[in-house]
């Protein structure tokens, strides 16, 4: 908070007593802010690790106890983690064995197996022949489509080249002034030919500006007198 608005202890007086307390001597009053503060130091009390309490303690023994507690807790956590992983591994092994015991091998007859193999072989051969024929037909159709697309692309390129050539020839013909002669040699009219008030100031003589270093005889003063003082 500012103290600029507060009055002084010895306010200034007018006349020969300028300066406030300069004549009267120093003031006997003083502000509360000028009083000395924190004249005594704070001391530790009992239970706040005073010098006597620290001297009575065995710091080395306390450090060794803390270290032993730390390492014992760390080793305990490691042992618990190892036991947990071992139990999880045993549970997984047990579940695998249970699923293997549940699977029963299927008994298959030898004659049935031979018949199935022969029938499968015949059907596979027929399917292979059909697949080969279909593949040949598809390849032929694909080649035909590719050929048609290539011919169409060549035709479009030729057409584009012909159009570009024609456009270039037309541009060259238009750019030659000897070939492109104007239809008429008449002079074009100006934009101000049909203006009503045209060349109004042609016959007027324009008086040149002159400088006269006299406020009464210069041209401005004469025009002013002629306009307002007739």
UniProtKB/TrEMBL annotation:
Gene Ontology molecular function: RNA binding
InterPro entries assigned: Cwf_Cwc_15
Residue ranges, compositional bias (Acidic residues): 110-136
GO biological process: mRNA cis splicing, via spliceosome
GO cellular component terms, A-Z: catalytic step 2 spliceosome
Keyword annotations of the record: Coiled coil, mRNA processing, mRNA splicing
Protein name: Protein CWC15 homolog
Segments of skewed composition (Basic and acidic residues): 43-86, 94-104
Region annotated Disordered, chain positions: 1-136
Entry coiled-coil feature ranges: 140-171
A Pfam family annotated for this UniProt entry: Cwf_Cwc_15
Family per similarity comment: Belongs to the CWC15 family.
Organism per entry: Cuscuta campestris
